[in-house]
Amino acid sequence: MLLFKFIKSKSSFILSFGELALIAPHATPTRAREKKNWMRPYDYLHRGVTYFQLKNYTAALADFEKQLTVCKQLADTYYYMGLVHEAQGSPAKAKEYLQQAYEKYTSTGFHCTDPYSVTPDQVFLLEIERKRK
Length: 133
What we know:
The chain is mostly helical. The chain has 2 domains: 3-34, no CATH class; 43-132, Alpha Horseshoe (Serine Threonine Protein Phosphatase 5, Tetratricopeptide repeat). The chain contains 7 helices and 2 strands; from the N terminus they run ββααααααα. The chain has helices spanning 17-23, 30-34, 43-53, 57-70, 75-87, 91-107, 125-132; strands spanning 3-8, 11-16. The protein has a two-stranded antiparallel sheet with strand order 1-2. β1 and β2 form a beta hairpin. α3 runs parallel beside α5 (75-87), α5 packs antiparallel against α6 and α6 packs antiparallel against α7 (125-132). The longest helix is centred in the C-terminal third of the chain and has 17 residues, at 91-107. It starts with a strand and ends with a helix. Residues 1-28 have low confidence and may be disordered.
């Protein structure tokens, strides 16, 4: 059994792969990660935005739908779904999703944000308001 040694202040402790996977899944070997779905809460959103930027709208919508199964209150997901529908030439659907993005952003305030920096794919209320009109 392969073990890892971690140094924490002046004491050290030993972890097995299983224990390591619980506290630092990114540090475990690829084979250990293949057994589980390692998508984190916003990964579908970020991958969907990447697909959108590559103009792969079908894959983008699929990831945004998956993101909605993780969190239905995230305004960013609805915003980007609106942009995809706009790019596909569906203005009515685009307006519907942008309206939902606006409602989520203003009512729940739930959107990707970091008080110290701008997060990848972060959506601002001003962007939503501009696209809604």
